[in-house]
Amino acid sequence: MALPRGMVIADAWSQLSDAVAPLSNSSGRPLARTVKLILDPLVLRPVQNPRFAGSAVDIEHVDDLRTRIREAGPVLAATAAWYQLVKRTRRKAGVTDGNPQDLYFQRCFELAHLHGTPDQATAAAELAAELVEDVRSSRGNKTVEQLRGYITDPGNVPELNQLLGAAWRTDRRIIDGRADLDARSEFLAVCATAPDSEMFHRLTAHRVGTHEANELTGDGVARDHGLSRHRRVAPPRLGDRASKTRLPPPFDRSILERAFASFTAVFHRESMADIPALIRQEIHRSAGAWQLAEEPSRVAMVLGRDATADLTDPGPAMARGDARARLRSRWQRQAYVHRVLRLPDRAAPGLPEDLRTDVRHPRRAYLRRLWVRLHGREMRGESVTADAIWDLLDGVLRSVIMDQRDRLKDTLGRGR
Q: Would you tell me which of 79, 93, 95, 235 could form a disulfide with 112, CB atoms 3.0–4.6 Å apart?
């Protein structure tokens, strides 16, 4: 027997004092960034403690997980106190760029370990000011405003438009590469339990990802994959504005929106190229197969497409270790999926059409999110290896499920 990991964490968190409120949401649960930036890497450490790594925790390990969080209570409370002080210091310094949680959560955890609470520290105000300045200076010129400023600078626009036109004037039909359908199927059959590096190398060497991008030139194919709203994919614009809450599907994004989407993850920024090089790389990437630059990324898109082709179809049984069977089982276990599918339109007039469509055609939402993750990896210079494929495929589906479940709960909750 096992319990959902999120539920166990939330229950353990609820036993902590009100001092951790700055790290909590309005429901008293830990913020998503608290889990991602503090609890997982610094408290639970699932890489070192695999019993805490899955989406569910076996019943014999539940008390251990709760104990870990309970024992970390004092340092978490001190982290929250430092975070409040650092935010006030940041406002006084006039710093507005970047998400404070991304910027300071882990650094505040360090301060809590070294000094306890701010009240216990000598010169806490000076330490907070040093932290704000250190983070600001370490980021150099890589700010969102500088990114926008570079791509909209009238002195740069003609050259960038010329580069964009040249990249998209090439014949985009790919004639080389091999489909290797059997090899793709064989790799998916083992990647969750015993990833075969030689087989993945074969898929990459045969340019399977590039070859399979041929279909995206077909009428409506990119739209059916959830990667565009249009029947035909067109070259992107340079763009002059971007908002994380209103980003279009991947193939419809401007160059600015493509760079902006990954650039706003502040703690990854320093691993990226400088802004002029980053924009030029993005222009060339936009004209590539799957609008990605690296063949392993393109192969990963093909594997994700293959693995999610029949999420909604009971279909023939496959070996339990097969990635396709695992993903299909995870999707079909979601109660909210069946709830949405049973709802007639008149029963939930407030349900967004895009949510209803994504639940009925989950591969669209899945491939959008998979593309975003692979694109972000490329921008940060991170390679895709055989060992990483299953975590990537499974992690994307878990992310889609959590997002859709939260949106459904929110929508139906408002309708009561």
A: 79
pTM: 0.66
- What is the b/e burial string over 391-414, where b = at least 16 CB atoms within 10 angstroms of the residue's CB? ebbbebbebbbeebeebbeeebee
Query: Does residue 378 sit within a domain?
Result: yes
| Domain assignment of residue 86, yes or no | yes
Per the CB < 8 A criterion, the answer to whether 207 and 337 are in contact is no
3 state SS of 320? coil
Give the count of domains, the chain: 2
Are 71 and 132 part of one and the same domain?
yes
Do residues 186 and 128 share a domain?
Answer: no
| Rounded CA separation 289/286 (Å) | 8
70, 131: one domain: yes
Q: Could you give the CA distance from residue 205 to residue 307 in angstroms, rounded to a whole number? A: 21
Sign for the CA dihedral angle at 241, 243, 247, 250 comes to positive
282 within domain boundaries:
no
Tell me the average confidence (pLDDT) per consecutive run of 10 residues in the chain, 416 residues long.
87 94 90 90 85 85 94 96 95 81 91 93 91 73 77 94 88 55 90 91 91 89 94 93 86 93 60 79 93 94 93 64 87 73 56 72 92 91 89 91 77 55
Domain that holds residue 83: 2-138
Beta-strand (E) ranges in 20-168?
56-58
- 302 with 182, same domain: the answer is yes
